[in-house]
Structures are given as structure tokens and as C-alpha cells.
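User: Teach me something about this protein's shape.
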Amino acid sequence: LQLRKEILTLVFPPDSEFPSEKSLSLRFGTSHMTVRGALKILSQEGFIEIAHGKRNIVKDFKGSVGIDILPELLVAGPDGIVPPEGFAIFEKHVFWLYDQILLSAAEKAEPEDKPELRKRVRLFTKAEGLDQIWNTQIDLVREMLRISDNIVLMMYFNSYVKTHQKLLTLGMIKSTVYPVPDYQKTLYKVIDAICANDKEAVRKIIEQIRPIAKQDIQLWYKNN
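Assistant: First, the predicted structure itself:
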């Protein structure tokens, strides 16, 4: 995490020589094996290029890393690396993803899907604590993905889950707006609309719940 931060904040700029395994072992007071593992991760993420027997070189992360590195960008300092307008792009992408999942489920849902969806809504709205709230929300969304059977949306959602989980692991998500009073009733309405294949009703309810989702996701940035 510290080495990522130093690359992101240009302590080690692109095309510069990255410290050797030996020097990093001395700096952090740890084994060569531990440092070697860290360098491997940095290489896989696109931060450095390892040249065995030669110098390690810092890559231009702006042309190599993906959105899964967002947590590290936030750790490095939101004001310097991810300004508010930059985070807003990620926020819009998340909203687009959830919108598409709901609308896609509304295309294929059957009335018999309703009991299972309502069950997962109950579990989500009654959940307590960050981990439980997040896990029950994932279960609800995955049930919608099962109904829609859209492999591309599944892949997008899996990437988002990995990013969110890393934020949780790093302690960067410290709070949530959920549970929200009377939220269960609103989610039941969207489930009813999905199972009735009423995409227009789904869109209207999405607009009702968007402010809550926006308030929750903005906590990620404000906490850091």
C-alpha cells in the first residue's frame, strides 16, 4: 500500500528506476520473500515492470491500471489523485450498472420470482453492520442477475464487488446510510414492477431511490 501510494503521488515518477528488492527489504525491515510478493503484485497491477537481473522500472499507471485500483487512488489522497469531479464519473458508472441490472431483470422476470426477491429484500433491509448490509445487498442483486441471465452485467458487477470489497478491507468505507426507514416498501414496489415486466415503472422507482444510493456512495469519498 505504501509503495502504491508513492508511485501514485509521483515519489517514483514514470520511467524512473524503482528500488531494488534488497533496498526495500532494508527499508521496511522485512524478508526478501515478502518484498518479492509485493513487487509481483505491483507488476500485475501495472505499476512497475520487473526486469530480473536488471533495474525495475516504474510504469505510467495512467496507461496501465484499471478501476480496481480506485481504493489505492483514494488512499493516496482524494484531493490530489481523485478530485470530486473524477469520483463523480465512477459514481455515475455505478448508478448505470444498477439501473441496467434492474431493467434487465424486468425483461425476463416471472411472477414466481417475486417470493425469492422479496425474501432477499427483507434480509437486506433488516441487516445491521457494514458487512451484513453489503452481503445481503449482493445477494439481492445476484438474484436479479440470475433472472436476467446477462453475462456482461454479471462481469461488470463482479468487478464492482471486488472494488467495494477492497474499500471495506482497507477500512475506507466506515459508515452507510442503510437501513433506511420505510425502504422495504419502496423495494417491494420495484420488485412488483420487475415481476410485472413494467420497465417504465422500474425507471420511475429508480429515480426515487437514486438520492439514497447517491448519499451512500458519497460517504466513500467523504470518509477519505
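Now, about its shape. The two ends are 15 Å apart (CA to CA). The mean pLDDT is 91. If you'd like, I can walk through any region in more detail.
User: That's plenty for now, thanks!
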